[in-house]
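C-alpha cells for Probable malonyl-CoA-acyl carrier protein transacylase, mitochondrial isoform X3. Go.
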Amino acid sequence: MDKNWMTTPYPKDIPLNYKEETKPSVNPENTSVLLFPGQGIIKVGMIKKYMDYPAAKELFEITNEIINYNLLKLCLNGPQKELNRTEFNQAATVVSSLVALEKIRAEAPKVFETCVATAGYSVGEITALILSGIITFEDGIRLAWSRGKAMQYASDMVPQGMLSVFGTSKAQISKACIEAENWIRDMGIENPTCRTAIFLCTERKIIAGNIEALEYIEKHKAQFGLTNTSRLPVSGAFHTPLMEPALKPVSKILNSIEINEPRCIVYSNYKAVPYTNLRYVKKYILKQIVSPVRWEQCLQHIYNRPDGIPFPQTYDIGSNGRMKTILKLVNSKASRSCIVI
C-alpha cells in the first residue's frame, strides 16, 4: 500500500485547495465534494463489495494492529449487536468509509484532485480530517477508537438515548426539551438532560437525553407540534452534556496528535463552517462530543448559491445513500449531482 495514503490521498504537488488565493477559477461542476457518514450506518457484510479494491484489506490490517482487535472480522461476520456497540462502531465506520473510498481511487482518481471540500457527520468528521490530511490515518483510527470507547463509557452511566423527531418549522422542539427536563427533574433525576443533538433538516431533528425525557416527548409529541418520533438504535445521548465523561480520555488522545495543513476545505460539525485556523481543530472535535451536530447548516454552507450557478459533483461515501437522502431534504438540486459510493 502507498504509505502516502497514511497522511493524505493527494499527491504532494497538488495545490492547497482550501486557500482561497491558490484556488483557480473553475466550473463548480468540475469540482467534487465528499460526504462521510456517522455511527449507525454500517451493517454486517456491508463492506464486502469494497474488499477487492487495492489497499482495502491493508487498511483493516493496520486498524486491527492499532486497536488490537479484529475489526475486519466483526464487520464481515458480526454479530450485528456487537458491531452496533459504540466502542466498535465508531472506528468501524471510519475505516469502512475509507475502504469505500478505495472504489473512487480505483475507478475515478481524478475526484481526489478536484476535491474542494469534505464534511463528515458526527464521527465521520474524523474521516473527513483523514481525507484532507489534517490528521494521519493512524491518528484518525486511534482517535475514533478512543472516542468510541469513551462515549460507550459515558452512555453506560445513566439510561439515555436519542430520538428522531419530525414536524414542520413551527414545531416547538426547544419547548419540548425544556418541559421534558423539568418533568424528569421533578422525578428526582439529577442533571436532567434533553437537548437538540443533531440538526438534520427543517422537518427533522435528533434530540437526545435521559430515557425518561425521551419518553415524555414521545407521549406528548402532539402538543409540541411533532408529527412523529422514532428511537435511534443507540444507547447514548450523543452530542449532549451526558457525554461529558468522555471528554478527558478523548482529550488525552487529541493532545498526542499532530495537526497538518489540509489539502481541501473541511467543515466543522460544531461551528458549521470550514476550519480556517488549524489551532481550533482539536478544540472543536472535543466540543462536538457534547454539542449539537449542525449538519443542516454545514450542507447549507456548502451548497447554497445564486440561481444559475451549478453544483459540484458530490460523493456519498459508504452510507448506502443515507447522506444523499439528507442532502436532498436540505437542497434537492444539489442532491441531483450526488453519487452514492
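Strands lie at 32-36, 115-120, 160-167, 194-201, 204-210, 226-231, 265-266, 313-316, 338-340.
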